[in-house]
Amino acid sequence: MRKHDNYQEIELRLNPGKAPLYQRLAEAIRDRVATGLLSPGNRLPPIRRLALQLNIHTNTVARAYSELEREGVLTTRRGGGTTVSINSEDPLLSALRTERLRSIISKAALEALSLGYEPAQIEKAMSHHLATYLKSPAEPTAPEPLVISGSDDPALGLLVNRLSRMSDQPSPILSVHAGSMGGLLAVARGEAHMAGIHLWDAEQRTYNTPFVKRMFPDRSMVLVNLAHRELGLMIHQRSEESIDGLKSLIEQDLVLVNRQSGSGTRLILDYELKQRNITPSQIKGYDHEVNDHFSVAECVANRDADIGIGTLTAARALGLKFIPIRHERYDLVIPYEWYRSELLTSFLTILHSDQYRDAINHLGGYDTSQTGDVVARLFPVQQPKTLTS
C-alpha cells in the first residue's frame, strides 16, 4: 500500500466465491481495516481509480463504499473523498478484528479437514502451537508432538491410542491421514517423524521399498512392518446386485466411491483396473473421493455408492460384504535418526509387544507375523555401510 494523490493506493485481492462482487470488495476493505493496513483517517482511492485498478465496474465500487458507510467503517465527504472513519476504541473495530480472526481460523480448519485431518487433531495442533507462542523465553517449551503421517489404518490408530495413554510418553502424538504419498512427502519436508504406507510398485512387483528409494536417495531410512492386511471391495449387505469383482462396476453400471489421489489404495485400484482393461472414464463415481477406509465404508453403508475399496476391518465395522482383492504389506517408513531416538522408544516398545499383536488380530483381517520387524534398511547410494538395528 502506498500514498498517491492524497489517498492510499491499496492492494486488494478479492476472494473467489458466489457472493456478489460488491460484497467481496467490501469484505476485502474490512479485512484491511481489521488488520491495520488501513488506519483511521486514511483516504481510499476514488471510485473510478479503484474500479480501473481492479478491472470492475464503477457501480460495484460505489455500492461497496456505500455498504461500508452504512456500517460506519467509511465516511464520504463532498470534496474530501472517502476515508476510514472507524477508530481504535470503536467497538466496531473490535468486531471486525474478531471476525477476521474467526475467518483465519475457519480457513485453516477447513483446509486441514479437506486434507484428511480429524477435528481432534486440528484442535490439538492449534492448542499446542498457541501454548508454545504464549510461553515466556524463560519457561521450558512443550515437547514437539510425535507426528505420524500417511495412510490411515485401524491398527495404527490402535497403536496411537495405546501410546497416548502411556504416562511415560515424552511427547503428544499427532496422527495425520494424508495418504501414503502424502505421508512420504511430509517426512521429506520434515513435517512428520514417520509415514505409514502401502504402495504397490507394479514394475518391481513389491510394496513400498522402491518408492522410498526414489524419494529418499540421500537419506538412511528404516521400514518397519505394521502388519499385512486384506484389501478388497465393500458392498452393502442388502445389495440386490450380484457383485463378484471389479468387472461388475461397468457390467452392472455401479457407482464407486474412490480414495484420494496419492493414496496407496487408489494406486492399487488403478493397477487392478488396468489389469482388467477398465478405464476410469467407464466408472461412475470414480472422481468421488474420500480420505480414509471408514469414510468409504460409510458411503457404501449409507447407499451413497454401490461399491468401494478398503480394508476388511472397515467393512466388518459397518456390516458390509467384502470381496478380497489382495493381501498387502503396510509399513512404517522412519528416517534412521528418528528410529534410533528416544522419541520413538515407547512407540517401538508397543509395536513389538505380544499384547499389541493380539489386539490387531482381534480386529480381523490382519496378519501380524512380521509386525515390528525391520523389513528393509535403505542407505544413501554414495555411503554404503551397515546400520545396527
Number of helices: 15
Our estimate of the beta-strand percent is 15-25%
Whole-number radius of gyration?
27 Å
Anisotropy-based shape = elongated
Low-confidence runs = 1-5, 136-143
How would you sum up the major sheet?
Answer: 10 strands, mixed
Mean pLDDT: 81
CATH class of the largest domain: Alpha Beta
Helix content: 25-40%
Number of domains: 2
CATH topology of the largest domain: D-Maltodextrin-Binding Protein, domain 2
Structural class category: alpha/beta
At CATH level 2, the architecture of the largest domain is 3-Layer(aba) Sandwich
State the end-to-end CA separation: 58 Å
Number of strands: 16
What does this protein structure show overall?
- With about 400 residues, the protein is an alpha/beta fold.
- It folds into two domains: about 1-105, Arc Repressor Mutant, subunit A, CATH 1.10.10.10; about 145-380, D-Maltodextrin-Binding Protein, domain 2.
- It contains 15 helices and 16 strands.
- The protein has helices at about 20-35, 45-55, 60-70, 90-115, 120-135, 155-165, 180-190, 210-215, 250, 265-275, 295-300, 310-315, 335-340, 345-350, 355-365, and strands at about 1-5, 5-10, 75, 80-85, 145-150, 175, 195, 200, 205, 220-235, 255-260, 290, 305-310, 320-335, 365, 375-380.
- Helix 1 crosses helix 3, helix 1 (about 20-35) crosses helix 4 and helix 6 packs across helix 15.
- The radius of gyration is 27 Å and the shape is elongated.
Observed structural traits:
single chain; 389 residues; alpha/beta; Arc Repressor Mutant, subunit A; D-Maltodextrin-Binding Protein, domain 2; 2 domains; ten-stranded mixed beta sheet; two-stranded antiparallel ribbon; 16 strands; disordered N terminus
